[in-house]
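Please, structure for the following, as tokens.
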Amino acid sequence: MHASPLTWLTRVLWFTLPFTVGDLIASGLDDLDDAARLAGTTMWWVVWFSGLLAAVVMSIRSLVLFRVLAPVPLLAAIVAATVAAPSALGWIGLATAAVVAVAAMAAEVGMDFVNAASYGDERRFPLRPPAALLLGPVELVWLLAVVPLPAGVLLAADGRWLPGVVLMAVGLAGAWWATVTLSRLATRWVVFVPAGLTVVDPMTLMDPVLFRSTAVRRLAPAVADTTAFDLTGSAPGLVLQIDLSEPVTITPTVGRHQVASELDVTEVLITPTRPGELIRHASARDIATTVA
């Protein structure tokens, strides 16, 4: 299974975390009683092993899991550092955890994971999430997924059962909600297939849409005054435009209680996470990529 150098680096750094961040977390747990210390240590090893498994066995689900877990060692290390002064090894752990948290979100790593499930002559290019989701909602979903559950376990281990059980229930619900929500973001792609390219985006389209290679006149960066139909969701990054020689029918998503209607379009906009790589791949498939 192919993995880029950045994915391998992320795996190696994750593997080293017990020897660096683990030292800092152990120091932070020293002042707790035996039950709470055991609970904290057990949760740390569960997070680490789950992240290692997700990093090695690549799939869409493991990408979601790994990106949820990747910032957790950094968060745990920061909390531990406020309790006990980090040793030299602890500072290395803090830096390593920060690199892992950033690298796990990299577009290159995401492409490795989503293409692990591709088959035949198929290549998937993830789309960037809408800007509105990046400025608060995604962070809130993540916090609900990773904070209440361990806090509840620690409270319960300390004998405070009522708040502990409440937080654990909130944490389990938050983890389920995060899985559903973030899985939708992880299954937004442009997929190159022998017949052409398909836009798969449940956030902007009711159904995937195939743009046949024979109908694609050009795939290139969009111009500032374009009137093409917007499938980007206002996502940040370089916007690409697909120009067609004949209309293609799409069904945009609509709000609740609204009726979806079909549209015939000859130009659409997309925002992939790696636009340059997508253009190079399109060119290799004999799709015109020059700016008109």
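Residues 59 and 117 are 6 Å apart (CA to CA). Residues 161-186 form the longest helix (26 residues).
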